[in-house]
Write a sequence for this structure.
């Protein structure tokens, strides 16, 4: 039976995790060895549970306990469930809860790049992509369109931030990912047997449908920060510079939109 707890006091310390701590604070929360993150909406929470993440507590509208939350709570009978009406929860958290439900979960130790790439043939590389919405959207495209893993430089927004996990529809829990170490990521990937393709607008860019790209047995597809794109040094160190053909005078796409186009074309491997 679920451990239902009606919220009576906003200042209760067990509610800090939902009401008073930002994503960055939760990631380094001293109460959990690897930190904590917040999953939002039933689908995202379910995918996190299916991937083995350990729940700490739930926060939800009271009306969801016996309907859309019921299958989740049956899996976690010992986990506290804090409830209130929607206006109370919005006042407490500062935002409207998607589908009326949050779950605080423990983070896990991230794998090494070598582990993530061991059996991968197509990987996405994100360099300094700082918007959590873009990170979440890229993960969703990567999972749907043939990427085997996602690698992020240390400056990227955290894929486990609440907005990222929600926008990704929980695919951050399904596709392998980790952070790249400091230094040259192109050198790291070359050492692992990958050829690298920089998505960038350059005079020497090859078109996205260049047959050489599909013929590569292992290919890393790199996308850069919003606005400026990939660093010049990263582009120079890549084996290919790749552009998406444009029309009507449009010079570029949002990084999340560009990722979907690139992954759809390059996620296939010629046998």
């Amino acid at each position: 039976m679920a451990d239902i707890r009606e919220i009576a006091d906003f200042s209760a310390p067990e509610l800090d995790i939902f009401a008073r701590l930002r994503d960055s604070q939760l990631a380094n929360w001293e109460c959990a060895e690897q930190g904590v993150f917040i999953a939002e909406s039933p689908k995202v929470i379910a995918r996190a549970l299916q991937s083995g993440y350990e729940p700490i507590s739930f926060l939800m509208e009271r009306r969801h306990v016996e309907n859309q939350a019921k299958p989740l709570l049956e899996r976690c009978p010992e986990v506290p469930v804090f409830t209130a009406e929607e206006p109370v929860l919005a006042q407490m958290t500062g935002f409207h809860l998607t589908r009326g439900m949050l779950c605080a979960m423990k983070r896990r130790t991230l794998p090494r790049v070598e582990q993530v790439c061991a059996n991968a043939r197509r990987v996405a590389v994100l360099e300094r992509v700082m918007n959590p919405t873009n990170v979440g959207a890229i993960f969703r495209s990567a999972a749907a369109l043939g990427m085997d893993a996602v690698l992020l430089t240390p400056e990227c927004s955290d894929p486990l931030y609440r907005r990222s996990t929600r926008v990704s529809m929980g695919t951050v829990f399904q596709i392998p990912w980790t952070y790249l170490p400091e230094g040259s990521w192109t050198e790291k990937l070359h050492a692992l047997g990958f050829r690298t393709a920089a998505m960038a607008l350059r005079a020497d860019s090859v078109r996205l449908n260049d047959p050489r790209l599909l013929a590569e047995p292992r290919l890393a597809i790199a996308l850069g920060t919003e606005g400026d794109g990939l660093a010049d040094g990263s582009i120079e160190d890549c084996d290919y510079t790749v552009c998406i053909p444009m029309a009507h005078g449009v010079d570029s796409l949002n990084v999340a939109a560009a990722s979907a186009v690139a992954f759809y074309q390059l996620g296939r491997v010629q046998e």
